[in-house]
Amino acid sequence: MIDQTANKNSSAYVTLRAMLINSDFPPGQKLQIEAIMELIGAGRTPIREALFQLCAENIVEFRYQRGFYASEISLKDVSNLITLKNTIEKMLINESLSSRDDNWEDNLILSHYRLKKKQPFDPAADYSANRDWIDNHRKFHASLVSGSLNKVALKTYSMIEENLDRYRSFSFRFCSYVTSNKSQNKLYEKVKSVSACDEHTNIFDLAVNRKSKELCTYLHEHNLQTLNIYKNYISSANLLNDKK
C-alpha cells in the first residue's frame, strides 16, 4: 500500500515536472488542481505534494490564499542561471576532460549522434519545440561534464540545465509565432543558428580532442549567445503582451 502511494506521488511529480519544463503551462499561469487531476489522471493529494516539491525547485510558485502558479520567467533569473552555468561548467569540463575514459567518450559520441538526428523545430507542428531535441540537447551537455566526480556540482549543473529547458521550450514556442511575423524573423534565425548542429559539432570536436581551454571559451560564448537570444524573446514577448 505504501509502495503504491509512493508510486502515485512520484508519477504525478514526474508528469507535472515534464509538462512545466516543456511550457505546457505558460509562465505565470494558475495551476488549477482540479483541472490537473483530470488532465493527468491523478488524485488531489499526489498533485498537491508534487506541486510543493516543484516549488522547492523554483518551477512552481505558491502564492498565499491564491494557490499554485507556473513560475514566471525573467531576464534576471535567466541571466543568473547562465552566469552560474558558466562558472560551474568550466570547473566540470576541466575535471571531466582530465579524467576522461572510454565510457565517457562512448557516452559523448552517442549523445552527439542522437542530437544530430533531431531538429530543434518541428515543421509539422508550426515550428514549435521538438521535445526530443530538447531532451537530447540536455543529455549532450550533461555528457560533456559526466567525467567529473564532483556529485554536488553535477547535481547543481543538472538543475540549472533543467531550469534553462523552460526557457528553451518557451523560446521555441514563441518562435512558432515569429515565423509568421516578419518583424520578428531575425530572432527566429538567431535561435536556429545557436541551436544548429554545427555549433554542437564544434563543441563535440573540442571535447574529444581534449582541448579543454578552447572548449571552455567556446562554451562560454555559446552560453552568452543563448542568453542574448532569451533576453530578446522575453523582451519581444512582453512587448506583444503589452499590445494585447
Going by CATH, the architecture of the largest domain would be Up-down Bundle
- Segments where pLDDT lies below 50 for 5+ residues? none
Note the total helix count: 10
Which sheet architecture does the biggest sheet show?
2 strands, antiparallel
Helix content: over 70%
Structural class label = mainly alpha
Distance between the termini: 51 Å
Report mean pLDDT, rounded to a whole number: 83
Could you please say which CATH topology of the largest domain applies here? Four Helix Bundle (Hemerythrin (Met), subunit A)
Secondary structure tally: strands: 4
CATH superfamily of the largest domain: GntR ligand-binding domain-like
H/E element sequence: HHHEEHHEEHHHHH
User: What is Rg?
Assistant: 19 Å
Estimated share of beta-strand residues: under 5%
- Provide the CATH top-level class of the largest domain: Mainly Alpha
In short:
This protein has ten helices and four strands. The protein is mainly alpha-helical and 244 residues long.
Q: Which tags fit this structure?
A:
single chain, 244 residues, mainly alpha, Arc Repressor Mutant, subunit A, Four Helix Bundle (Hemerythrin (Met), subunit A), two-stranded antiparallel sheet, two-stranded antiparallel ribbon, 4 strands, globular
Structure description:
The chain has 244 residues and is mainly alpha-helical. The chain folds into two domains: 2-70, Winged helix-like DNA-binding domain superfamily/Winged helix DNA-binding domain (Arc Repressor Mutant, subunit A, Orthogonal Bundle), CATH 1.10.10; 75-243, Four Helix Bundle (Hemerythrin (Met), subunit A). It contains ten helices and four strands; from the N terminus they run H-H-H-E-E-H-H-E-E-H-H-H-H-H. The strands form two sheets. A two-stranded antiparallel sheet has the order 1-2. A two-stranded antiparallel sheet has the order 3-4. Helix 4 (75-98) crosses helix 7 (151-178), helix 5 runs antiparallel to helix 9 and helix 9 packs antiparallel against helix 10 (212-243). The longest helix has 32 residues, at 212-243. The protein is globular and about 55 Å long. The model has no long low-confidence stretch (mean pLDDT 83).
